[in-house]
Specification:
Layout (H helix, E strand, L loop, with lengths): L15 H5 L11 H4 L4 H7 L6 E4 L6 H11 L3 E6 L5 H18 L3 E6 L6 H13 L3 E6 L3 H4 L2 H4 L3 E4 L6
Parallel strand pairs: 1-4, 1-5, 2-3, 3-4
């Protein structure tokens, strides 16, 4: 094997931050006000009964990491979209796939929308029926105050969890 052999199994293009991310709630550091043993969110995750929610906090405080832990811990399908790169067509496809998974396999779908504050009203409204009907369990991730940056109809159907800046 030489330095330029990229076909070996040891080659991994993942960034260091992705390699070091916690894989479960016991490894998750910080945000104890949200994920402490016995907390509402932790119980909902462990019972696989999470409802639609919005994770709001500063960059780098664990919002996306917690969503990934939810993805690996719960028994549903997990779809990840980024509001900067996605539009109504992507949402419609995800909702249709979720509807089929629920109908055919009885399997729920978690839809993580990263940077959800970037969706405009039309894009946000495309999510509303699926959230209301339980077709998807929406997990929004945002650095902006959702009460000011998102449509009230979406926010009113979600539990908002406020993440705090990490101290260390």
């Amino acid at each position: 094997m030489d330095l330029f052999d990229l076909n070996n199994n040891e080659y991994d293009a993942k960034p260091l931050a992705d390699k070091m991310r916690p894989n479960n709630l016991d490894e998750f550091i910080g945000q104890q006000h949200i994920v402490a043993p016995g907390s509402l969110l932790r119980r909902a995750i462990s019972l696989d009964r999470l409802g639609s929610c919005i994770f709001w906090g500063p960059p780098g405080c664990g919002k996306t990491t917690l969503a990934n832990i939810i993805a690996s811990t719960t028994h549903g399908n997990f779809v990840k979209l980024n509001a900067v790169q996605s539009g109504v067509a992507d949402v419609k496809k995800a909702v249709e796939d979720a509807r089929n998974a629920l109908k055919l396999y009885g399997k729920k779908t978690y839809l993580l929308l990263d940077e959800c504050h970037r969706f405009n009203k039309t894009q946000s409204d495309s999510l509303l029926p699926a959230i209301e009907q339980g077709t998807i369990i929406f997990i929004g991730s945002t650095t902006e105050n959702p009460y000011a940056s998102m449509t009230p109809a979406i926010v009113s159907r979600c539990r908002v969890f406020e993440f705090r800046r990490l101290s260390e």
